[in-house]
Amino acid sequence: MYTNLPKLSSLDEASNLVNLDRYPLNRLSSDRGQALIGDCQRQLDNTGCCLLPEFINSETLELFKKESEKLSVHAHYSNMLANVYFSEDDESLTKEHPKRFFFNRTSGFVRADSFPTDSLILHLYNWPAFAPFIQACLKEEKLYKYADPLSYIAFNVIKPGQEFPWHFDNNHVSVTVITQAPEKGGIFEYCHNIRSGASQFCKNNKIMIYLRITYLSI
Fold first, then answer.
1. Coil, helix or strand for 88?
2. How many beta carbons lie within 10 A of that of residue 160, not counting itself?
3. Measured in whole angstroms, how far is the alpha carbon of residue 192 from the centre of its chain?
4. Upper half-sphere CA count for residue 35 (Cβ side, 13 Å)
5. Which candidate, 27, 43, 37, 39, places its Cα nearest to that of 134?
6. pTM for the complete prediction?
7. Is residue 213 within 8 Å of residue 157, measured between CB atoms?
8. Residue ranges of the alpha helices (H) in the chain?
């Protein structure tokens, strides 16, 4: 259990983590809430990505950084070559095929079961207002939380000189919180509409969400 972190007696109190003045997730049916959803939908329609600056309260973000630092000691590090699908080489394909390009992966990953029950990051993920907001932005009738007990929160740790190569996720949606920006480099990249079809996603084709936390260790 962590020390020097505020205790949350209920999930409702997780609302204190979010900048509700700018992002009224607890009042989505209000005019401001509907305007927020509309703006997010336009961003997703135009670019496939929605940016929410200062979504986390500034004081809470500092606590997220402290929590990330404590969690980072539990990271499991990779030292492997990986393609964008995390699949094996397929020599039946041409050398120019994307599946045949492999890159170094040396970043760390903290399993979701490493999070203590008083984790602020965990409280944000489980906050009852969080998933409905994402669902509304995506215009989806149903939204499922990622069921994998080890990776429903993808906590990535990247130390100087380490690499986390470009890749496809096997879920439809990820919400990324960057708790600490690098002094230089560390560019967050994504591309819009470059895969299609159910075979490119999870097998049951359910719209799933998981929370990705990226901690750039100094």
1. coil
2. 11
3. 17
4. 6
5. 37
6. 0.79
7. no
8. 31-47, 58-71, 120-126, 130-138
